[in-house]
Design brief:
Blueprint (H helix, E strand, L loop, with lengths): L13 H19 L1 H44 L6 H21 L5 H15 L3 H15 L6 H15 L2 H13 L6 H14 L3 H14 L4 H20 L21
Helix pairs in contact: 2-3, 2-4, 3-4, 4-5, 5-6, 6-7, 7-8, 8-9, 9-10
Length: 260
């Protein structure tokens, strides 16, 4: 009689069985969220593509604006001194390219530079009203640009001077003096003093000269201000009326003497 050896059925431990059932449950849940997950991943990929496209477009625009601005500056530098007609033509070409940068690529880093150089070119073309408008536009759009705003304000003041508008020039120079971080306040004070002096207002001129000497003693304008102050003091003292000497007491004549 043969005996059959019974092999006991293999059973999973309780904890392993629970683990497999938990994994099956998680897989089932993932299957139920499969569509929303795929949609979310698609949205992320699309957003990443849009951002990358915008960055690429901005980079291309910045490069084109930079190339235009550099070419315009090259045209300005290439103007011949012995050929006024060609120099005027190159100046017009440069201004056209500066305007192209400003109009087509206003959000690039080259746009403020192009606007500043356009104003300078308009001054060279003797278009002072256009230069003044350009400088004012710069201050409205890029007034927070610390590296150029003060220089543009100074160029605006000199454009007003060339135009003959002393009041507006004085306002522009005063804005430089009152600005918190201006780097050319000494020059602005000197120009304000000269404006006062040219309009026969020596008191105001002396006040600006003295402020310049006191606040910026190492400025190259301080020595000139010191000379102008001494000249004005000398002129003031020479123009002061000389007091007349006191009259000598009159001596009565013999006719005026009373006989006893």
């Amino acid at each position: 009689m043969s005996y059959r050896i019974k092999v006991p059925a293999k059973t999973l431990p309780v904890d392993e069985a629970h683990l497999l059932s938990g994994l099956e449950h998680q897989l089932h849940r993932l299957q139920s969220y499969r569509r929303p997950i795929l949609v979310g991943l698609g949205v992320l990929v699309l957003a990443a593509g849009i951002v990358g496209g915008v960055v690429w477009v901005d980079r291309q625009a910045a490069q084109k604006a930079q190339d235009l601005e550099r070419e315009a500056t090259r045209l300005l530098m290439a103007r011949p001194a012995n050929d006024p007609a060609k120099a005027d033509d190159l100046l017009k070409q440069a201004m056209t390219q500066y305007r192209q940068v400003i109009d087509q690529y206003p959000r690039t880093a080259s746009a403020p530079l192009a606007l500043f150089h356009l104003g300078n070119a308009q001054v060279q073309a003797n278009d002072l009203p256009g230069a003044i408008d350009t400088y004012q536009r710069f201050l409205v759009l890029y007034g927070s640009n610390p590296s150029l705003a003060e220089l543009v304000q100074q160029r605006l003041a000199y454009a007003y001077l060339l135009k003959g508008d002393r009041d507006q020039a004085a306002k522009a120079f005063t804005a430089i003096v009152n600005s918190p971080g201006g780097l050319n306040k000494d020059q602005a004070l000197f120009e304000l003093a000269r404006l006062e002096e040219s309009q026969s207002r020596p008191e105001g001129a002396l006040a600006h000269y003295q402020e310049l000497i006191k606040t910026y003693p190492n400025s190259p304008y301080a020595s000139e201000a010191t000379i102008r102050t001494k000249v004005m003091d000398t002129k003031k003292s020479s123009e002061s009326p000389v007091p007349a000497p006191p009259a000598a007491p009159s001596v009565p004549s013999s006719k005026d003497k009373k006989t006893p």
